[in-house]
């Protein structure tokens, strides 16, 4: 499983057993055309998160209508009313909840997004970044790491309001870092993989992500004549052409020259971004909002914990085992508890729980998947 987080605010408490939420806590289930959301934020805020993702999805499909944005597994989005409400469910860092305003948890049976709806944090950056990763994995063969991360950051600034959607807006944090520290040679940037220090070490990640974003932005928006050359470069790499030869054939220049163009670009004061009218997009508007019974809330929060850190599995168990057998959510809780047992390598126990879920009428594909 893969987890990404967006940092925010101070860590307030060390990890400890998560108490069951009070019965007075009000949660709603919101379903849009392509996303399932659960939230104790206001229903309006939870719906807006779903609609924003529907708009981003529509923009991506409008750019290339041959692509698919349909996920083979469901995407569950948890919208917490405040950072304090989100904090107990955050991934752990050194035994404490991560310093985060949102996180994305990718699993083989679902994508889990959790975020705070607090007014003083903006979790959209990490949510959109990780959604782009999913979109690329669903539609393309493996891509160079610099391009995948750069494109994800390019779309992380997606915004939609006032009747239009905007993509490719400037990352001021990236610009400031690049202007302050300088750029790495392009041959080094292109050589970075997921085992490289630039990708994994916190002191080196910043420049890698910033330069990857800047190069993608320059090649797609800063120099229109370079955009088809970028596509050609990626195509040649896919054909296993040597990187240097592929670069020169695609761009008609050397890496030092293109790096000079990029250095000049980030010194600019003006940058362009994409704008599209929402009326020109095919955006589904159907949405349903349903109050969640307490037992459903326990099941869904337990399922979120079951797909998080291994240290949270005992919390997941307590939430799921608190769902009474008479509740409609009980078969789902059994299925999620079966997933917990799988993660604990208790295969026979997991199989028994999945059978009970099936016999209880569960229509969750996961009980058959495992």
Task: Kindly describe this structure.
The chain has 16 helices and 12 strands. By secondary structure, it is α+β, with helices and mostly antiparallel strands. The protein has helices at 43-63, 83-86, 124-139, 145-155, 172-181, 186-191, 197-200, 202-222, 227-238, 243-251, 255-266, 294-306, 313-321, 330-343, 347-359, 366-369, and strands spanning 2-7, 28-31, 36-39, 75-80, 92-93, 96-97, 100-107, 110-116, 159-161, 164-167, 274-277, 288-291. The protein is 48% helix and 15% strand. Helix 12 (294-306) runs antiparallel to helix 13 and helix 14 runs antiparallel to helix 15. It has a 7-stranded mixed sheet, sandwiched between helices. It has a 3-stranded antiparallel sheet with strand order 9-10-11, covered by helices on one side. Among the domains are: 1-124 and 278-291, no CATH class; 293-369, Serine Threonine Protein Phosphatase 5, Tetratricopeptide repeat, CATH 1.25.40.
Per-chain topology:
Elements: E1 2-7, E2 28-31, E3 36-39, H1 43-63, E4 75-80, H2 83-86, E5 92-93, E6 96-97, E7 100-107, E8 110-116, H3 124-139, H4 145-155, E9 159-161, E10 164-167, H5 172-181, H6 186-191, H7 197-200, H8 202-222, H9 227-238, H10 243-251, H11 255-266, E11 274-277, E12 288-291, H12 294-306, H13 313-321, H14 330-343, H15 347-359, H16 366-369
Parallel strand pairs: 3-4, 4-8
Antiparallel strand pairs: 1-7, 2-3, 2-12, 5-6, 7-8, 9-10, 10-11
């Amino acid at each position: 499983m893969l987890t990404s987080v967006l940092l925010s605010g101070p860590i307030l408490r060390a990890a400890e057993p998560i108490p069951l939420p009070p019965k007075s806590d009000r949660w709603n289930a919101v379903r849009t055309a392509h996303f399932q959301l659960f939230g104790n934020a206001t229903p309006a805020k939870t719906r807006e998160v779903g609609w924003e993702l529907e708009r981003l999805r529509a923009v991506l499909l409008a750019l290339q209508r041959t692509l698919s944005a349909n996920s083979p597994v469901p995407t569950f989005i948890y919208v917490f009313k405040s950072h304090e409400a989100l904090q107990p469910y955050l991934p752990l860092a050194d035994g404490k909840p991560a310093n985060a305003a949102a996180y994305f948890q990718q699993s083989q049976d679902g994508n889990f997004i959790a975020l705070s709806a607090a007014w003083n944090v903006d979790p959209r950056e990490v949510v959109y970044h990780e959604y782009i990763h999913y979109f690329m994995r669903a539609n393309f063969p493996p891509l160079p790491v610099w391009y995948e991360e750069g494109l994800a950051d390019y779309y992380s600034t997606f915004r939609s309001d006032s009747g239009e959607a905007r993509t490719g807006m400037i990352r001021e944090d990236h610009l400031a870092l690049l202007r302050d520290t300088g750029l790495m040679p392009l041959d080094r940037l292109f050589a970075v993989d997921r085992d490289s220090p630039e990708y994994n070490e916190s002191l080196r990640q910043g420049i890698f992500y910033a330069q990857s974003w800047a190069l993608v932005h320059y090649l797609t928006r800063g120099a229109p004549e370079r955009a088809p050359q970028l596509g050609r470069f990626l195509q040649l790499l896919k054909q296993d052409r040597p990187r240097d030869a592929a670069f020169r054939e695609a761009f008609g220049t050397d890496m030092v020259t293109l790096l000079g163009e990029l250095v000049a670009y980030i010194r600019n004061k003006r940058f362009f971004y994409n704008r599209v009218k929402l009326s020109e997009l095919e955006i589904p508007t159907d949405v349903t909002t349903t109050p969640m019974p307490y037992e459903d809330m326990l099941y869904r929060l337990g399922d979120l914990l079951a797909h998080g850190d291994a240290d949270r599995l005992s919390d997941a168990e307590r939430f799921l085992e608190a769902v009474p057998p008479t509740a409609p959510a009980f078969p789902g809780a059994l299925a999620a508890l079966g997933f917990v047992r799988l993660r604990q390598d208790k295969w026979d126990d997991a199989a028994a729980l999945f059978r009970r879920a099936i016999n209880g009428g569960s229509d969750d594909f996961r009980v058959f998947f495992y």
